[in-house]
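Below is one such protein, fold included:
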Amino acid sequence: MLSKTMLKALNAQINSEMSSSYLYLGMAAYFKHINLDGFSNWMAGHSKEEWGHAMRIWNYVYEQRNRVTLADIQTPTESWKSPTDAFGDALKAEERTTGQIHALVTLAQKENDHATFAFLQWFVTEQVEEEQLFDSVLQKVKLIGDHYGALMMLDHELGASNHGS
């Protein structure tokens, strides 16, 4: 059984993961609107991945014989000045999630909740991978700048990748 404090924090993380999913879906819509279908598909895949993270925590809460409490999800932005700005916001979202996961790990340690501590280790590893992946794409988009041919090549590369799908 989870403590009330841990349950509240895990419920908040479920909401945060769903919010990230919604943000990435907004980014997918933005990229679709500007005809970058590869970017759109990549972000839609990451939207599904974030939803999967929320469900992983959701299942864990029930495995621990507790109840999930859902909260409102804010409407995401669907427009950015450029792909660089969108990927910059995505990286910030991943960095925010990393901080939240680290706070959950610290809370689990503080409460001697060994089961939750062990459960969260998957997320710790996942966030290292996610930050690296989003930063890698952001750096490529920055290098490309206004070179549309290179942007189209990256769009094709992301559309063909299996990241997030």
Observations:
- The mean pLDDT is 96.
- The longest helix spans residues 114-144.
